[in-house]
Amino acid sequence: MAVSVDLAKALDKDFEDKSLKEILDASPAALAGITDATAAALQQALGVKTIRELGSNKYFAVAGVLVALEGKAG
Fold first, then answer.
1. Distance (Å, whole) CA 11 – CA 56
2. Is the pLDDT of residue 74 over 70?
3. Which residue in 60, 3, 27 sits closest to 15, CA to CA?
4. pLDDT of residue 7
5. What is the DSSP letter of 13?
6. Engineering a disulfide at 11: which of 15, 51, 54, 55 sits with its beta carbon 3.0 to 4.6 angstroms away?
7. Residues 46, 57: contact at Cβ < 8 Å?
8. pTM (2 d.p.)
9. pLDDT of residue 19
10. In this predicted model, what pLDDT tens digit does every residue of 28-70 receive, in sequence order?
11. Could you tell me if 11 and 36 are in contact, meaning their C-beta atoms sit under 8 angstroms apart?
12. Contact 60, 54 (CB under 8 A)
């Protein structure tokens, strides 16, 4: 099954037509709303250099799980 996703609003214009691999290998600054300075701070603080590393970072993963759990808490 083919899957199509429109990421135009999530990425800087220069990355809208890139392959998934190129996007994942790019600096977090390729994400809309993340500046070069913010990307540099992520690298300095957490060693995150790429979108792939950002998405697989253990701290962000735990935070995502906690947010998902909040919606299930009763």
1. 18
2. no
3. 27
4. 84
5. G
6. 15
7. yes
8. 0.84
9. 92
10. 999 999 999 999 999 999 999 999 999 999 999 999 999 999 9
11. no
12. yes
